[in-house]
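User: I'm writing a tutorial on reading structure tokens. Could you give me a worked example: one chain, its sequence, then its tokens, then a sentence or two explaining what the tokens reveal?
Assistant: Sure. Here is the example chain.
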Amino acid sequence: MRWITLVLLIPVVVLAQEIHSPLCLGGCPASAPSSNDLIIREIYILSSNDHTKFADWAAYRVTKKTIGHSETRTWKADPLLAEDETLEPKDYKDAHRRLKTDRGHQVPLASFTGTTYWKETNYLSNITPQKSALNQGPWQRLESAVRNLAKQDDVFAVYAMTGPLYEREMPELPKADESHTIPSGYWKIVAIEQEGKIQVTAFVFDQETSRATDYCTGSTTVDEVEARSGLNFFHALTPSDETQLESSTGKLFIRLGCDTSPGSSVPESS
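And here are its predicted structure tokens:
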């Protein structure tokens, strides 16, 4: 099965202009550098950046069946990437002590322990150095809210896209021997589809966000995430689909445990 995945990976990276996958609602993120490695797995897709050594975006789908019990974390370099394209476990040595960072999942482990593929969330292509306060605070609570939503009777699946921001220089990992760039913040876009309509909401968090911060205060618009990340979201939707998506935004924000609609909007079709 591993070799089959690799064979499928090559033509997608070389030839495809648009990425179509059941893991992405309204199209997978577009406009990442063409030099990126597109990695397609059973439970997620990510676009790994050779220069930063981290994924520019990751997309996944959470359902009742994908959620299971807690599992261990055994960190490994991604076997689909060359040594100079990704970090290795030893590169994170002393990072927590000196930078107060965790190995932060972009695709959360806890959302996929109900599958046989959960170990693949621990590949370092899916990891970034995320400040402990953010990782264990509002980021974790937002991921938990996504799982709680996926467990609701009227929800078939929750679709998420997530990735880093590079808006200021950050200290590098003290023991890493590869060139890399640590993110200054993170974004997450959450969406569901019900009765032919797509509901969506978005969040942005700075690396220095405090542990006690309410994740709802990180709400923003999809337009804002697009502008700050340089990516293009929901590009596969028709103009009428985007109108339905925009009108449904506040409902999902509330279903994620937040009290007030953030007034989100969707990006222009391109």
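What the tokens reveal: Confidence is low (pLDDT under 50) at residues 1-16, 263-270. The two ends are 36 Å apart (CA to CA).
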